[in-house]
């Protein structure tokens, strides 16, 4: 198991962790969440051995294979599939030893190594690598292209495929969905759900976390708190804690009232379309999750557009593409104020092309694009982050956009996007990708557009900013067209789903939950299931099954005991946390509450003792199980 014991760590003057203790059991899938800059990536560096604790201990089981995505963008002239195969370090070691044995004419050594290669599924490794690349969106034949022929985003997909190629015991993933489209996110989600090792995942995608993780680890103010359940369960538990604080509770009530009001207005107008019903459910769910974000640093909204003409924009018989290559054809679309459209479609189908046509950045090759005289487009795309003036401040960018506004008014506005104090007047150059994305959104919203085009707006945005953006978009009065791999954002903002496929754009027959099934039907071979069977190709399967069954029967009592102890540990740890929270409340120390205080203290001491005993038993049983497994190997 992975253990942190009373661990503290600094980066320069900043204290990232203070007295942190944590136990992650084999096979658990843990989502690591916390504000940007709280120390999540530094914790990963600690687990990789690149940083060291100031005090305390960090321990991993001996022999665990750890996999993570390299921080640098991959480069090189070698084929993509060879780069991915390098992720299986044992495979490459055996292949090198085989080549050396062949060169030396050592037939005995060759036979021994060939058996090892077969036992790890080495003869099917290239097929496994190809499936990883296909799942992440690479087209057939792309696997032979040189690594350096790909753009930066696709190279990061290659780095992710290389990491997944490793037959790891511990997998560390830091924002793996940032460079993926929705199709690849759905594939990766399925792959991780079938992953047999221990996973620690940093992600700002709520639906992705909910689907993959079984526990949520919250890093806040130097402390680590492990919650049982996925991200939604964490939000509910954290909301309960925050609601105990009076000031937070009052603000929570205002947020809930605001959401109630919007839901009621929306319900009165909603049709019986499945997309509309899905959005109502998502909005109702927001009543549960809003309290967990009462301390969010982001607070902003859209002012009503100056003009709302009907229609805003119309496409008739439109075709578009690049360099004579058609992408879209026969497109008819009319956008009116209040339209909320989410675009679905496989990678390369033309979603971004359609957005560029709507924005006027790409001229149609046929047909007509008609716009209202008062049309004002707000267009967000990733390339716009590079168009910021890096030597100027966020405040200067905003002053150029709105020269008549006072400096204080602009500072107040920027504060809602997390640019307060000196951050508003400091140069853009050192800002992170997420901070630049927030600034571009701030500039866009300030212009009060009546047509909002958002192409992957949540890349690099943390959960708090995504939550604030989704709430702001619900009040937006203009027309919205959205491309996003963040399904939560799509659920709570899009009333209509359009499918871009085969050059055509048409309403999607279903809701967002039906989209993975549509993908699977179009491409049955594109599955996220981990092909564990490949590790046994060519072996004597009948004998192997018999031996495995005998070993399972012999070790089953120990496994059952270990699982029972794990359940006991989780139950006792949860109760111990509840008691600690209760004893942290000031009112419990009032004279009239003394009987209650004594009862809580007595139970806390008893639970702590039981927890210590259970942990000792768990260690002893785990060691015995590992020893017997090693003896049987």
Automatic annotation (TrEMBL):
<dbReference type="Pfam" id="PF12848">
    <property type="entry name" value="ABC_tran_Xtn"/>
</dbReference>
<keyword id="KW-0677">Repeat</keyword>
<dbReference type="InterPro" id="IPR032781">
    <property type="entry name" value="ABC_tran_Xtn"/>
</dbReference>
<dbReference type="GO" id="GO:0005524">
    <property type="term" value="F:ATP binding"/>
</dbReference>
<dbReference type="InterPro" id="IPR027417">
    <property type="entry name" value="P-loop_NTPase"/>
</dbReference>
<dbReference type="Pfam" id="PF00005">
    <property type="entry name" value="ABC_tran"/>
</dbReference>
<dbReference type="GO" id="GO:0016887">
    <property type="term" value="F:ATP hydrolysis activity"/>
</dbReference>
<keyword id="KW-0067">ATP-binding</keyword>
<feature type="domain" description="ABC transporter">
    <location>
        <begin position="2"/>
        <end position="246"/>
    </location>
</feature>
<dbReference type="InterPro" id="IPR003593">
    <property type="entry name" value="AAA+_ATPase"/>
</dbReference>
<feature type="domain" description="ABC transporter">
    <location>
        <begin position="313"/>
        <end position="527"/>
    </location>
</feature>
<keyword id="KW-0547">Nucleotide-binding</keyword>
<protein>
    <recommendedName>
        <fullName>Probable ATP-binding protein YheS</fullName>
    </recommendedName>
</protein>
<dbReference type="InterPro" id="IPR017871">
    <property type="entry name" value="ABC_transporter-like_CS"/>
</dbReference>
<dbReference type="InterPro" id="IPR050611">
    <property type="entry name" value="ABCF"/>
</dbReference>
<dbReference type="InterPro" id="IPR003439">
    <property type="entry name" value="ABC_transporter-like_ATP-bd"/>
</dbReference>
<comment type="similarity">
    <text>Belongs to the ABC transporter superfamily. ABCF family. YheS subfamily.</text>
</comment>
<feature type="region of interest" description="Disordered">
    <location>
        <begin position="522"/>
        <end position="549"/>
    </location>
</feature>
